[in-house]
Design brief:
13 strands, 34% helix, 3 domains, single chain, 21% strand, five-stranded mixed β-sheet
């Protein structure tokens, strides 16, 4: 029977190998520890391949030294770049050589090595690694990131950008991909398609624990994607939004103040009132005797009245009232003013209720709607499908196809 020869000078390929098949064990004399194959106990490793291409490899040599403080073993790592013959490149004296993990795949392999060393804490001393660093799976990182406040998320992203030296073009690309995703969610909500066995509205409600009512869904979505409103409801940009603001003066019981869904802030304030994409703008039947026109629904008329009431209340209370957002930030009235506040009313879906068809009764509804908007100075009325089309143009810089709502092949690609 042949006894396998023990070898200590082996290299483990972290790029292609399964790291779960190796382990760190203390030697028999208890004066060192070694990395060995779990199955072939005669095979030991002293170095790891972290990256390789047709010409070079990045290798990390690992040695362990006993600690006089913790009675464990301190890992010492030496990184080098070698060619395929095993020779290290000669460099001039005092000239640095940089081994950079510029690609995400390279960085992941590096952290795989660190995680491997840290998983043998009973014999390996990694110092304050546990309290200062963490080896996260992507899913764990995302799960913890999602639980943070908006302010914490922004600070973490700023830190990542600064530390990783992400280019401006890369940031724009990330933003573009995120907006494409949100635009896809917008499309699903406005069409209310079935997602994983549920309608999009129900799926969204369950995912974000939103209370009953479609209006609450749209409020949550647009509040969390305020770029859709800030870039689209006006020629001027709206810098930020204050959520659910009481815009009037309350009575002695803290009641009687109209509440706006969103208060837009730029040089001047903008009030935004939301209904739903399913809210009807016109009655089913038109009043007899009225030619070339159609009757608005009570929901539409009441919404307009609500907007006018909020507009009037904000005009009267602005100078004496403090406006505070969800993060506790108070509106700076030295930079933002209210003068005859602009009011935007978002309601309904023209593509469903009265698509542009000159040969049907939809023509009278479309004409009545447009006449109302063009002759109404105080409230800008925008439908959800119009808002989607503007958001699409913002993301893609192109005009959306006219039949996008009825075309089953129309999709937002990610």
């Amino acid at each position: 029977m042949l006894i396998p020869q023990t070898t200590f000078d082996n290299t483990f390929n972290l790029v292609t190998g399964d790291i779960s098949k190796i382990e760190i064990k203390e030697n028999y004399d208890q004066n060192n520890c070694l990395i060995r194959d779990k199955i072939s106990h005669s095979t030991y490793y002293k170095s790891f391949i972290l990256d390789e291409n047709s010409k070079t490899k990045i290798v990390c040599d690992v040695a362990f030294y006993p600690s006089s403080i913790t009675s464990k073993y301190l890992p010492r790592l030496t990184f080098k770049k070698i060619d395929n013959t095993g020779l290290q490149k000669e460099i001039e004296v005092k000239k640095d050589i940089t081994i950079a993990f510029q690609k995400s795949e390279q960085a992941l392999v590096f952290w795989k090595l660190i995680g491997f060393l840290n998983s043998f804490k009973d014999i390996v001393d990694t110092g304050e690694f546990d309290t200062s660093f963490g080896v996260y799976s992507k899913n764990k990182f995302i799960a913890e990131f999602e639980t943070q406040t908006e302010k914490q998320k922004v600070e973490d992203i700023k830190t990542l950008i600064n530390k990783s030296d992400i280019k401006e073009t890369d940031i724009r690309s990330i933003l573009f991909e995120k907006r494409k995703h949100n635009l896809k969610v917008f499309l699903f909500l406005i069409k209310n398609v079935v997602v994983q066995g549920k309608t999009s509205i129900d799926f969204y409600r369950e995912k974000y624990s939103i209370p009953p009512g479609d209006e609450a869904i749209w409020h949550h979505f647009l509040k969390n994607n305020d770029w859709i409103l800030g870039l689209n409801v006006d020629i001027k940009f709206i810098r930020e939004f204050y959520n659910e603001q009481k815009v009037g003066t309350e009575n002695s019981k803290a009641a009687g103040s109209p509440k706006a869904d969103l208060l837009g802030v730029s040089d001047f304030t903008t009030l935004i009132e939301l209904k739903t994409a399913k809210t009807q703008i016109f009655k089913k039947e038109k009043t007899k005797g009225r030619a070339n026109t159609w009757d608005f629904t009570p929901d539409f008329i009441e919404g307009i009245s609500q907007c006018l009431g909020q507009k009037f209340a904000l005009d009267r209370s602005f100078l004496t009232k403090d406006f505070v957002n969800e993060q506790g930030k108070m509106l700076d009235k030295t930079t933002t003013l209210t003068i005859d506040p602009k009011t935007v009313f978002i309601i309904g879906n023209r593509k469903v209720e009265f698509p542009h068809d000159l040969d049907s009764i939809h023509h009278f509804k479309s004409q009545t709607f447009e006449l109302f908007r063009r002759n109404n100075r105080n409230v800008d009325v925008v439908t959800f499908d119009e808002l989607f089309e503007r958001a699409y143009h913002t993301v893609y810089g192109d005009i959306i196809q006219q039949n996008w709502f009825t075309d089953d092949n129309f999709k937002i690609t990610e």
